[in-house]
Amino acid sequence: MNNRFLSASASSRQTRGRNNQRISANTVRRCLSTSGLYARHPYTGPIMTQHHGYQRTLLAQEHAPWDHIQWQSVVFSDESRFCIFHADGRVWRSGERYQANCVREHDR
Fold this sequence. Notes:
By secondary structure, the protein is an alpha+beta fold. It is built from four helices and four strands; from the N terminus they run H-H-E-E-H-H-E-E. The protein has one domain (8-106). The chain has helices spanning 8-14, 25-34, 50-63, 68-72, and strands spanning 38-40, 43-46, 91-93, 103-106. The longest helix is centred in the middle third of the chain and has 14 residues, at 50-63. The two termini are 29 Å apart.
């Protein structure tokens, strides 16, 4: 599936059945369900590049040996969130929550 954010209705409009006949959105949902794909809200996470992932891994490895006392000196703070991009909807997936094509990225 190329665009996992495409709704069943939109997919039914783009897909033709046998003899070039239109198919219903229910047929799309039934076929996806039969294939083990279900409509779920996507994991929403920050925009991540390969470099970001590398930097996060380095940070985790650097702080892995810290004990409880060292972590007490760290302050975690929430920051204001500003939505620039907004998309409601679900993604068709089957146990692939964190795969790149199943993540809705957001920018703060």
